[in-house]
Design brief:
single chain, 5-stranded mixed sheet, 4-stranded antiparallel sheet, 35 strands, 1% helix
């Protein structure tokens, strides 16, 4: 406790203009940096800036309540120092820890500052709480530009975009984002003000169906970037949503154990309910369409695999019919062709997603252990050979092949990462 008591030699500045040198012990020290003299500079949760002697454990300088929201980050360049608090305001101090008059404030949409790096006397790199990096100029012409932007909550929705090299993501942060895999960049991101869980793009139109973390789904125009249709359905969140290959149907799988099938018309702007597929005894997890858009295969939380006629929403029980169906995609983690992705001891929630590369006969699965697993397709034998790739620091939530199946995109849960993998011939 005595460490946080100013001594007689400590120079004290108070933001309120008083001469009170008494300092309450802060709850957290949030950041630190060294200046050119080897002195340690710290910022804490009470907004105090403290300079510590390089030779003994005592304060050299104390600026009390420099920032009302705490000091989250400090960086030193020559004789200048920059700091930022919970808000987006960045302030520069001189060698005497007085303001130089240069500052910059990021908008609320950017998120609060979490780290700052000097590039030169005028240019900064700023990392924010919303997992974004910005370049900021403190010089004569104040400006900033976004270098990298991403999601700031778990990402579950992933789909091919409106061209072969693009893809869509959506997350619990309410953002729907379009990415370009060739430039490794985000094309645009739109906040929909609701938690989002799943997404699928129309096979021929610039539209995307987005399932929410509530009994509701929307249709989003990817060109004008606005919602063009809204539908409330079921009693729980939409777990999976997919257009048929011909674009004439849309299937929405809900956590209320049902699949809701809609007929699509008027260039994707009108949706008429065909019926409800009801036979699962647990919530829907995945679904796939047949090549001819006539059949649906679905998985549920209690490991069921069921098959349906799309135009009648009736369950298909005839094995001879099921055997001859060819599937447009392979995202159902439970099927005869994906048995080998399941190891002994795994439960039904450990593998979150899978997808097939038809041109190269490859199958990828992603799991709760942060791994991306590569198999040959079909993968029908137990303990199938695989290659395992690491990178994510949390559970991996989804995966999709894009760019004519030359690239793989995976999305993360708590790490909120979007990873791109290149498919190489071995």
């Amino acid at each position: 406790m005595a460490l946080f008591e100013p001594t007689a030699s400590t120079k004290v500045l108070n933001s309120d203009g008083t001469k009170n040198s008494k300092l309450e012990r802060p709850k957290f020290v949030l950041c630190m940096s060294f200046n050119s003299r080897g002195e340690l500079i710290t910022g804490d949760s009470d907004g105090n800036l403290i300079v510590w002697s390089s030779k003994e454990p005592r304060m050299v300088f104390l600026h009390k309540k420099l920032n009302d929201t705490g000091i989250f980050t400090i960086n030193v360049n020559d004789d200048c120092l920059i700091y930022a608090g919970k808000s987006g305001k960045i302030v520069e101090l001189d060698s005497t820890y007085q303001s130089t008059g240069r500052s910059f404030e990021l908008s609320e949409n950017c998120g609060g500052c979490r780290c700052i790096l000097y590039l030169n006397n005028n240019m900064l790199i700023v990392g924010t709480k919303k997992n974004s990096l910005y370049q900021v100029n403190l010089g004569e012409f104040n400006f900033f530009k976004c270098l990298i932007s991403s999601h700031c909550d778990e990402i579950w929705g992933l789909s091919q975009g409106n061209n072969p090299s693009s893809f869509l993501t959506c997350a619990n942060d309410g953002l729907l984002s379009l990415w370009d895999s060739m430039s490794f960049s985000q094309v645009w991101s739109v906040g929909l003000q609701e938690k989002l869980h799943c997404v699928d793009s129309h096979p021929s139109l610039d539209l995307a169906a987005v399932g929410l973390c509530k009994p509701k789904w929307i249709i989003f125009d990817l060109i004008v970037k606005k919602t063009v249709f809204v539908q409330s359905e079921g009693s729980e969140q939409i777990e999976v949503i997919k257009y048929s290959p011909n674009g004439c149907y849309l299937a929405a799988g809900s956590r209320d154990n049902s699949i809701y099938v809609y007929r699509v018309s008027d260039d994707g702007l009108k949706y008429s309910r065909v019926g409800k597929c009801s036979a699962h005894s647990s919530f829907l997890t995945h679904l796939d369409w047949s090549n001819n858009s006539e059949y649906i295969m679905s998985n549920s939380g209690d490991y069921e695999i069921l098959f349906w006629r799309a135009d009648t929403c009736r369950q298909v029980l005839d094995v001879s019919v099921i055997r001859d169906i060819t599937w447009a995609s392979r995202t159902c983690v439970l099927s005869m062709e994906t048995l080998g992705i399941w190891d002994n001891g795994l439960d039904g929630t450990d593998i979150n997603a899978c997808c097939e590369a038809k041109n190269t006969d490859l199958l990828v699965s992603v799991d709760d252990f942060g791994k991306v697993n590569l198999f040959k397709y079909p993968c029908a034998s137990l303990k199938a050979d695989r290659k395992v790739f690491a990178g994510h620091s949390s559970h991996v939530t989804n995966c999709r092949f894009i760019s004519n199946e030359t690239r793989l995109i995976t999305t993360g849960g708590n790490d909120m990462g979007v990873f791109q993998w290149e498919i190489l011939n071995d």
